[in-house]
Structures are given as structure tokens and as C-alpha cells.
From TrEMBL:
Protein name in the entry: SPW repeat-containing integral membrane domain-containing protein
InterPro entries xrefs: SPW (IPR005530)
Domain SPW repeat-containing integral membrane: 45-138
Keywords: Membrane, Transmembrane, Transmembrane helix
Transmembrane intervals: 38-59, 71-89, 96-115, 121-144
Length: 159
């Protein structure tokens, strides 16, 4: 007669007794470890990029400063795409955090280089966008450095 008891047996997919479980857990933690910090910054980077892209229409300089409006639209879309990259592949996008700092500095000086005779509203909008982008880039670079330092520490200590 067949055994029809309802006792729980280990399933074939259970890896808890596999000899490589500690190594797999450590590798998985290393892959995800640095990504969480940078993925948390993706939301603010996306919002700054969105405001940058829409700022010509929010501040009403799209008609008077067409070159600067196009510039802000392109840079804003680039920041939004960078934020999406930080969300989906934070480990691979960590190298672009320093580029985000450069974009922030560029946004601060862009009204005088790309635009022609910008008014105070345009200048303030680009300075705020640039400063926020620069600070978020520094935060992403710091998160990337912390995660790489944690990975080096784990490899050296053998944990």
C-alpha cells in the first residue's frame, strides 16, 4: 500500500543542504549590496531630471530661449534615463555617478554658455538643478565607494 501520510519532506528545489550555499549567499549579497544604496537615490535623480526637462515650460522661457530650452530638455531626459539605469542596474551604473557631478556643474554654467542674456528665473532654475544634480552625483559616488570598499573587506577577511 502507498504511503499517504502528510509529512513534509524536503523538495528537490531545496538548496539548504547544498555544499556551496555560503558561497552563493555571499556572492548574492555582494551583487546586491551596493545596489540598494544607489537605487534609493534613483528617485530623486529622476525627479531632478524631470524638472530639468520640463523647466523651460514651467518657468516660461521655452519661446525666448529656444537653445537653452532644448538643452534643458536633452539634459533632463539624460538624467531621467540615468536614474532608470540606477534603478535597474545599480552596480553597472555606479561609474556614471561622477558624470552626474559633471552634468551638475555644466547645468550651473549653461545659461551663460548656451543661452543668451538669461534672466534671474532661468539662472536660479539651472543653478538649483545643477546643485542638486551635483550633490546627488556625490551621494551616488559615495555609495559606490562604500559598496566597493565593503566588497574588498569581505574578500580580504574571507567572510
Amino acid at each position: 500500500m502507498a504511503d499517504v501520510s502528510h509529512r513534509r519532506e524536503t523538495t528537490r528545489g531545496d538548496l539548504s543542504s547544498h555544499p556551496d550555499v555560503p558561497e552563493m549567499r555571499e556572492r548574492y549579497a555582494r551583487m546586491l549590496g551596493g545596489g540598494r544604496d544607489m537605487a534609493m537615490l534613483a528617485g530623486p535623480v529622476f525627479l531632478v531630471g524631470l524638472f530639468c526637462a520640463l523647466s523651460p515650460w514651467i518657468i516660461h522661457f521655452a519661446g525666448a530661449q529656444r537653445a537653452l530650452a532644448t538643452h534643458n530638455l536633452i539634459i533632463g531626459v539624460a538624467l531621467a534615463v540615468l536614474a532608470l539605469g540606477l534603478t535597474f542596474a545599480p552596480g553597472r551604473m555606479s561609474g556614471l555617478s561622477t558624470a552626474m557631478c559633471a552634468i551638475g556643474v555644466w547645468m550651473i554654467v549653461a545659461p551663460w554658455i548656451v543661452g543668451s542674456h538669461p534672466d534671474k528665473g532661468i539662472i536660479w532654475a539651472n543653478v538649483v538643478i545643477g546643485a542638486l544634480t551635483f550633490l546627488l552625483g556625490l551621494a551616488c559616488a559615495g555609495a559606490a565607494m562604500r559598496s566597493s570598499r565593503r566588497g574588498v573587506t569581505r574578500e580580504v577577511s574571507g567572510v
